[in-house]
Amino acid sequence: MPRPSCPRCQRPESHCLCPLIPHLASRTRVLLLQHPSEVGHALNTARLAALGLENAELRVGERFDDLAGSLSDSRYRACLLFPGDDARPVAEVAGDDPRPLLLVVPDGTWRKARKLLYLNPELEALPRVTLPAGLTSRYRLRKAPMAGALSTIEAIAAALDILEAPNRFDELLRPFEVLIQGQIEAMGEETFRKNHGS
């Protein structure tokens, strides 16, 4: 019989993260597009990000037929947080126009995120923005596929720190860090060190 879980954070009730999830305001709107394979993941950081930000929305799927309406909201400038040859630093893009950004963030493995772009041509058409080089992930349970690779929630917090400066979004990462620490404790320190280094 499955353990009862919290309907909001979807963690087991005994490990509910809701008391740690902040309620942060931002001018920047965040639209998270989550590949369905991520929904059941123990570390569903896109969900945590959406719950912690007032101006965020999480949609789950592979094809998003209603994207055009969201992307054409004239109050915002839509851009895609995803690397690419023509991607510009997010700090540079922030000063282009007084309107805040609509930051579209695909959530999934790199392969699944690329599939979301392929299946939704509106995403491919968006200007791309990237984070500064040299950021280090706190995601100690997963080997980064490339230098500077961050989890979804870390990438959003880093982007908002830049776009909304001097406001900081460290609080967004609190439930994420507790979640990771819980996973490490569950596997045991020795197993963690053996598999993931010190």
**Number of DSSP E strands:** 6
* Helicity level: 25-40%
Morphology call: globular
Strand count, sense and barrel status of the largest sheet are: 6 strands, parallel
Distance between the termini: 36 Å
The SS-based structural class is: alpha/beta
Read across the widest sheet, the strand sequence of neighbours is 2-1-5-3-6-4
Rg from Cα: 17 Å
Primary descriptors:
198 residues, alpha/beta, six-stranded parallel β-sheet, 33% helix, globular
Q: Can you characterise this structure?
A:
- The chain has 198 residues and is an alpha/beta fold.
- The chain has one domain.
- Helix content is 33%, strand content 14%.
- The chain is built from eight helices and six strands, in the order βαβαββαβααβααα.
- The chain has a six-stranded parallel sheet with strand order 2-1-5-3-6-4.
- β1, α1 and β2 form a beta-alpha-beta unit.
- α1 runs parallel beside α6.
Summarize the structure.
GO terms for molecular function: tRNA-uridine aminocarboxypropyltransferase activity. It comes from Metapseudomonas lalkuanensis. The chain is of the alpha/beta class and 198 residues long.
Per-chain topology:
Layout: E1 29-34, H1 45-52, E2 56-60, H2 67-71, E3 77-81, E4 88-89, H3 90-94, E5 101-107, H4 110-119, H5 121-124, E6 128-130, H6 152-163, H7 174-187, H8 189-196
Parallel strand pairs: 1-2, 1-5, 3-5, 3-6, 4-6
Helix pairs in contact: 1-6
